[in-house]
Design goal:
By secondary structure, the chain is mainly alpha-helical. The protein has a domain at about 75-163. Helix content is about 60%, strand content about 0%. It has five helices and no strands. It has helices at about 25-30, 45-90, 100-115, 125-135, 145-160. It starts with about 25 loop residues before the first helix and ends in a 5-residue tail after the last helix.
Length: about 160
């Protein structure tokens, strides 16, 4: 009888490796590996974190839209009108008369009241805001600009809706 000698104690020969080891697998190597052996592309928390951030952003956007549609824009414009009224009062030139100042102040108070009561639409404010911006650009409000603003305020206040 012939006896075969099997030497199971010797390790198999090491494969010859490339001189430089890459820190990442090539796409073919990644997809050829069984699913359990692959290192994940993203950290496990990354997908959950991005999902949570996306939900928070969506809730914030929809909340802001709801706030603006249900009186928030009107409240913001009322605040803007009151602060602009104070700013313009500090910018009057010396030749603006007291009656012009009183007419402008009365028109702004009426507009602010009408906005708070939702009797003036936001689209009626466009001419007032445009002329207010033009008057405030040079940090000086002249009598002609006050006259134009008073006319715009009277037009906006005349478009009030009945209660």
């Amino acid at each position: 009888m012939q006896i075969e000698k099997i030497d199971s104690l010797t390790p198999p020969p090491e494969p010859v490796s490339a001189p430089g080891r890459r820190g990442f697998p090539l796409p073919a190597e990644y997809y050829a590996a069984p699913p359990g052996d692959r290192r994940p592309l993203f950290a496990p928390w990354a997908t959950a974190g991005c999902g949570i951030v996306a939900v928070v952003v969506l809730i914030t956007i929809f909340s802001a839209g709801y706030f603006a549609a249900h009186g928030g824009a009107t409240q913001l414009m009322t605040f803007f009108i009151s602060s602009s009224r104070k700013d313009i009062a500090a910018m009057y030139s010396k030749d603006v008369t007291a009656s012009q100042k009183a007419d402008f102040d009365r028109g702004m108070v009426t507009l602010q009241t009408n906005l708070g009561a939702r009797r003036v639409g936001l689209e009626a404010l466009q001419p007032v805001l445009r002329d207010m911006r033009d008057a405030m650009l040079d940090d000086k409000v002249t009598p002609d600009e006050v006259k134009k603003l008073v006319a715009d305020l009277q037009t906006a206040n005349s478009r009030t809706k009945p209660k």
